[in-house]
Write a structure and sequence with these properties.
mainly alpha; Serine Threonine Protein Phosphatase 5, Tetratricopeptide repeat; globular
Amino acid sequence: MTVKNANIQEKLQIVREYLKNGQPEKALQMLDREAQHTELVHARGVCLLRLHRVEAAINELRQVVFGTFVAIPASTPPLYKANYLTALLLKGYTQMALEIEQTLKAEDHAYIAKLKKAVREWKSSLPLHQRLMCALRLYPNRPFELTFPPGEV
């Protein structure tokens, strides 16, 4: 591992500790100075999610999910996609979010498994006609709430 990669991994570990301790603002302050590397931009997006700054989180996470492409590249890490779809769900963009959710596998990350479970529960809470629409991949713009902290680094 190069010195630069070791430095990034150290910073990500500090961010994880801050998030674990419910201090996303401290993590964000650290990242504000340094968030240029893709992994750090991703971490910044998660911090913004935890601070309920969803629109700003969408903008940060879009950068790491799409890169310079108009569609999500196959090489985008599943956790990046999961955090982006979390932001979309919290903003109310369910159609776009749930199309991304269909591409994720629960076994790729524990956070993805929790998120997919939350989506299933949300769908099952919908009225019958909206559940039928979901089967056709036409998702209602209904409020989506998480019972766990949004995003994961």
